[in-house]
Amino acid sequence: MKEEICHDDSSAPVKAQTVDELHSLQQKKKSAPNTPIKGLNQSAFGSEVDRNKQQLQSISASLASLTRETGPKVVKGDPSKQADTTNVAHASQFQHQHTTPNLNISDSSLKFTHILYNLSPADLYEQAIQYEKGSFITSSGALATLSGAKTGRSPRDKRVVKDETTSDELWWGKGSPNIEMDEQTFLVNRERAVDYLCSLEKVLVNDQFLNWDPNNRIKVRIVSARAYHSLFMHNMCIRPTPEELENFGTPDFTIYNAGKFPCNRYTHYMTSSTSIDLNLARREMVILGTQYAGEMKKGLFSLMHYLMPKRQILSLHSGCNMGKDGDVALFFGLSGTGKTTLSTDHNRYLIGDDEHCWSDHGVSNIEGGCYAKCIDLSREKEPDIWNAIKFGTVLENVVFEEHTREVDYTDKSVTENTRAAYPIEYIPNAKIPCVGPHPKNVILLACDAFGVLPPVSKLNLAQTMYHFISGYTALVAGTEDGIKEPTATFSACFGAAFIMLHPTKYAAMLAEKMQKQGATGWLVNTGWSGGSYGSGSRIKLAYTRKIIDAIHSGELLNANYMKTEVFGLEIPTELEGIPSEILDPMNTWRNKDAYKETLLKLGGLFRKNFEVFANYKIGADNNLTEEILAAGPNF
């Protein structure tokens, strides 16, 4: 009998003579895009060659020195891998066609700068782990990174070019986040950043979009030196399709992130080795001396706060979700108010967690991702964020167990400001595309540690504008003696660090849109009741969720209301599922005199904060300003 042989796992030998050839078979070559460029009638190969040349020409122009007037020789691909001779040839051909002879030749002009263009998360993981110390894959698959010495934004080092246009348009002076610099200083810093980036063997380039509204989309280019920064922006901006990338063209705005290289402290306007510079006329941003990735995200948000109002579109620092019937709610709130928790609702679609636009067509998310705080994160409290921390997610400055790579979210050894950046589609109930109809409810959140604001108040338009401009919450601060007391915090428009125009301009636009669309304003206190911090207790999250549900359903609109003293807020007398006595904060205080004293104290803090806005006229007359002032505390 002939012996039978099992051939189940037998196959023909591989078509490779060397290990390198075997590796080349492992990675499938990218096919040529099948969407032709408008106006070109060439073969697929010829079109791809032209597209590559056009992309390289655009990137080289972005990296051009203003003194040498030419960009560097650029070539696509990682220099550590086998050279792509075809691309090098294309780059050489491109350089010969588009550069002019220059007697002031420099070392950087003699070399190729390798461009890592719109890399995938997998590619960026490899770049980070191989070349960036402090990069690790955690047990969940996320990429843990370090942002260097800076673990948060540096608002005192942020500068905006003041020129003939911006001197009139932007908000300057007391209370403003805009610190001026002149054009010449910006160009000095730009030259420093570009020279640094061009001196590197390779730089990373992301071409992406801002704003899910297709009619008001902004094209952005991010040039950076770290894979961490490239992956962060890959997640936070809107990711183009291959077809959109083909026809990307010239960007509307460019970021030069040379954060690993410091600015020159002897340069005019510099106060440290860090400088984040915004030039609205040139549509450029330069980052020197900080590797914290959040500077890029918020720099682009500042840009949108300038560009969108010019189109009669309101830019907002808010969360946004939508019910299954299409009712949209905006959530405003500073850190610790519960904005992320309350806007993330399994019964509603998430449009976005942080930055939005409100146009004549409705609302749209500015970003393509979420940037969530991780300190004390748990699966039980924030299951959506927990589950979003997987392959592709950037984890900033977290601490993990060396062997298992399990992240300890309670560990503050590096910083308390640990963060996760992930694409919005990692949230199961995210609405893609991230757009929705006009908002029905505008919810202002405050964590009042003084314990005198009601759990919920219905606001008229003037009150909505007043509290929107105020942007109040209260933090709990420790003293040397261990005594803890509330500290009032005000941030205009709930995002003072990012706004470019005077707060009253955004407030007027908000009121106009709310009035036109019939939206209702609400003030929700997620803080203390029955006393200030230390004597009272935090309002239960379950009660706050019931309040938010009643706002969404319209139940609160039909409730009976009474008016409070000092702030003149309308509060419901009863609401199903919530003890009636807590709806009026005075009822929860045992010492009524202490309540009135604390109420007057908080009212005084509001008045003092609003002094900087009181003399600012809105429109042709001063009626609207007086109406807003009258909506504040009255005693």
Automatic annotation (TrEMBL):
Q: Does the keyword Nucleotide-binding apply?
A: yes
Basic and acidic residues composition bias: residue spans: 1-10
A Gene Ontology cellular-component term: cytosol
Q: Which organism is it from?
A: Anisodus acutangulus
Record-level GO BP terms: gluconeogenesis
Region of interest (Disordered), ranges: 1-52
As for subcellular location, the record says: Cytoplasm
Q: Which family does it belong to?
A: Belongs to the phosphoenolpyruvate carboxykinase (ATP) family.
Q: What is this protein called?
A: phosphoenolpyruvate carboxykinase (ATP)
- Catalytic activity, EC: 4.1.1.49
